[in-house]
Each structure stands twice: as structure tokens, then as C-alpha cells.
């Protein structure tokens, strides 16, 4: 009985601790590519947007999230952020019309040196496709969506030498600002990888926040330079999607994080 009460109290405390995390969803391609977990079929994406619209969710922008976390500016009760990594062409042709249909906003993170090109940086067996062109990026902005940098070349930032790291982070910010004539304040880490050294350079380059995935993120305190995101894979079930945008969304980040930490621990022990 006593243990049960303690368990319930812990659950309630955890709920209040984490209920203010705004779910930040991570998408890549909107396409039907069998075997690619980063490509979500168009019909599934529409089903998800329809659910968000019918259940009064508001898709917020990075600016709104920043104002909320730094100045306590209130957000709509059911807020969610939609992010697209790498700036694939199908984000423009498939995702944008659906986002407009359901009156939703999203932010795309293109790679500066890969704008309007084939996806050759993914030379690890990914299906060939292309990325959004400069004109399409401008139309994406005109449609009320946001664009923020995803570095120059999409490297593993933690493996870059100091000089290269500064270029990847600072030059992509300056390049996009010039190209799109708007401030670039929020970086997205390629592969979600970062460390203390990377964060120092991001701060020095005057970014206000940075988006990660689950690796290396802290869940107890919101770190503006290590914001966790929840991946939406190609096989995403609707019941799970509903939980991913609910007030217990952070559990999905925690599960992936613990799984990764456990695998690392196992490798250390058995190597
Ligand atoms: Zn990426």
C-alpha cells in the first residue's frame, strides 16, 4: 500500500515536471519509399494533420517557442511544432499543400550547400531525390512557413576541427540570412549530434536556440541549445502519434535516450 502511494506521488510529480514540454516533431521526407524510416507517406501525414486540426492543436513557430521559454509568453493550450530536416523537394510539393489545407505552420532546415541539388550527402543507400530550390524556399517563406539553418554541408559536428566547425555554423547562418533576407536564430544539428564544444560555437555565432533529437539532450532542465525532438517514422501508428503530441510527449524522447544509453553501456561492458 505504502509503496503504491509513493509510486503514484512520483508519477504525479513527474507529470507536473514534464507536462510543459512542447512536443517538437521531426519529419524528413513526405514520400512513399519502402524501407526508409525517414520517409512518411503523404496519406499518413494528412491523417496526422487532420487529427491535429480536429483536436484544436496549434502549430507554433521557433520564435513563439523562444519567447515562451525565455519570457514566459503563454502558448496556446495544445501547441506542437512541426520540423522538417534537410529541405527535401517533396516537402514543397507534398507537405506544403497539406499544411496550407489544414492551416498549419512548419519549419524546414535546409543544408546551405545542398539547396536545389540531388541528395548526394546521403551516400549511404538512400533513394535518390532532390532538395528544394532557392525559388521554392522563397515560396515556402511566403506561404507563412519558416526556414532555419542545418549547417553548410551536414557533417557530424562533433567530429569537425575547430575551424570547420565555425564555418559550418556561422557561414550557414550568414548565407541563409543573405539568401532569404531574414534573421536565422535557430540551428538544427545534423544527425542530432552535438557536444559542449559545438554549443559554445553555436552561442558565439549568436544563435538563440538549437534543435537536437534525443542523443545527449537533458530532460530535467530545458536547454535551449539542446532541444529534444520526437521522430515521426514512416510506420507511425496513429495511436502512438496521439501520445507523441500529448502532455506525456517527453516520454518518447526519454525512451529513445535510455535505449541509446543502455546500448552504449552494453558496448562498454562487453567490448
Ligand atoms: Zn539532416
TrEMBL record:
UniProt superkingdom: Bacteria
InterPro entries found in the cross-reference section: Glyco_hydro/deAcase_b/a-brl (IPR011330), NODB_dom (IPR002509), Polysacch_Deacetylase (IPR051398)
Name of the gene this protein is made from: pgaB_1
A Gene Ontology cellular-component term: extracellular region
EC number: 3.5.1.-
GO biological process: carbohydrate metabolic process
Keywords, alphabetical: Hydrolase, Signal
Subcellular location: Secreted
MF term (GO), any: hydrolase activity, acting on carbon-nitrogen (but not peptide) bonds
Protein's recorded name: Poly-beta-1,6-N-acetyl-D-glucosamine N-deacetylase
Top EC class of this enzyme: hydrolase
Source organism phylogeny: Bacteria, Bacillati, Bacillota, Negativicutes, Selenomonadales
Pfam families, per the entry: Polysacc_deac_1 (PF01522)
SUPFAM superfamilies assigned: Glycoside hydrolase/deacetylase (SSF88713)
Main subcellular localisation: secreted
Residue stretches making up the NodB homology domain: 78-271
